[in-house]
Specification:
The protein is mainly α. About 55% of the residues lie in helices and about 0% in strands. It has 15 helices and no strands.
Length: about 375
């Protein structure tokens, strides 16, 4: 739910036409364990480091949420003191102690997906479980050195690297070689064969590219992964036209002539370039998408297929009456009484761009996470 809220804050990624379930499916297939809420890779270590230390101190279930929040707020100051500025991905750099969505909230699901968090449950459930966990630990037989013998399974991966000294006083997002190798291995073990795994295994950071399919290693992909990425690319490029047409229609309805002309030019440019593979198969496309999201509505599939049919017709998309009706009806179905093309008040609140960016499947986030890891991987362990 927080991911949905975050998407609504980014005006160019709002799911105005209700295709987010398909976008989510391909995002999870290509980049499992990631989220639009993520900023830097080292948070995947900061969060378990904080909680593991609280467990070491046997902080009670009643107190752990407060203590964890305190330490996560301290982490903000430590990162800034370490030289990480506001634009470097510090969660809470502006809000500081008023921060509501902590890093642990943003990374909680990803930590489980990558096998770093072993406890299966929400953060609240984890907090409530700690008293019982400590009771079990106290009853485990101890060997020499007070180490448990066959103790209970830990809440965090046993291979987690040690935290840096005085982490909550001053630190950075720069990973150590040991930490980078650990994260690379967790991705490889937990998401084998995914695009995330392939890119993090390449051993060196890539120059910035706007989309995953522009990555220099794409020609080397195995057949199945290459097909999944190709489906994602085509869906992104074809559905981009629907978003542009929708915004053009909004600009026209608001009598924003200059903006409407600009969107029309973008629609026409898109129409002159868009193309789908000659051997396109909807059965294959939906079979791939449904692998990670079984809940893609039938109405969404129908809308996508109908839009593709209009998009592949030669010329006239901006003034195609059927395409316009399709967009208008889809917005009303998705947004009901708040549909801007049917509700004048909702239209007046439109800011001039809504969901107009091309789908990138979290790539801007993923690219930064990958480069965090790859810059720190020792040359001796690099695959390519």
């Amino acid at each position: 739910m927080q991911e949905v809220i975050e998407l609504f804050r980014e005006r160019d990624t709002v799911d105005e036409l209700g295709v987010g379930s398909v976008r989510q499916a391909f995002s999870d297939l290509l980049f499992p364990g990631t989220s639009v809420l993520h900023t830097r890779a080292r948070y995947l270590l900061f969060v378990p480091w904080i909680y593991r230390e609280l467990e070491r101190q046997h902080v009670s279930s009643a107190a752990v949420a407060t203590r964890a929040r305190r330490d996560e707020i301290r982490l903000i100051d430590a990162l800034i003191k370490g030289g990480e500025g506001e634009g470097n991905g510090v969660i809470g750099s502006v809000a500081r102690d008023r921060l509501k969505q902590l890093p642990s909230y943003a990374y909680w699901n990803g930590l489980e997906a990558l096998g770093i968090r072993k406890y299966q449950g929400s953060s609240d459930q984890y907090h409530r479980s700690l008293d019982s966990y400590y009771d079990v630990l106290r009853n485990v037989p101890k060997a020499e050195g007070d180490e448990p013998v066959d103790g209970p399974g830990g809440n965090w991966d046993a291979g987690l690297p040690p935290p840096p000294d005085r982490m909550l006083e001053s630190t950075t997002f720069e990973l150590t070689p040991e930490e980078a190798v650990y994260l690379r291995e967790r991705i490889h073990v937990s998401a084998p064969g995914s695009l995330l795994d392939v890119f993090v295994s390449r051993g060196r950071p890539a120059r910035h590219v706007p989309f995953a399919w522009s990555h220099p290693d794409v020609p080397k992909l195995q057949t199945d992964l290459a097909k999944t990425l190709e489906f994602a690319r085509v869906f992104s490029e074809v559905m981009h036209g629907a978003s542009l047409l929708y915004n053009m229609m909004l600009a026209e309805a608001r009598a924003m002539t200059e903006l409407a002309v600009d969107y029309r030019a973008r629609v026409e440019e898109w129409a002159s370039q868009v193309a789908t593979p000659s051997l396109w198969s909807w059965d294959e496309f939906w079979a791939v998408a449904l692998l990670s999201n079984q809940r893609i509505p039938v109405t969404t599939r129908e809308f996508v297929e109908q839009w593709f049919e209009h998009a592949t017709k030669a010329g006239g998309t901006a003034d195609d009456r059927h395409a316009r009706v399709l967009i208008k009806d889809r917005e009303q179905f998705t947004k009901r009484s708040q549909a801007r093309l049917h509700n004048r008040r909702a239209l007046e609140l439109w800011g001039g761009s809504s969901g107009a960016a091309q789908l990138a499947y979290r790539w801007p986030v993923v690219e930064r996470l990958l480069n965090d890891i790859l810059r720190a991987v020792p040359r001796s362990t690099r695959a390519g």
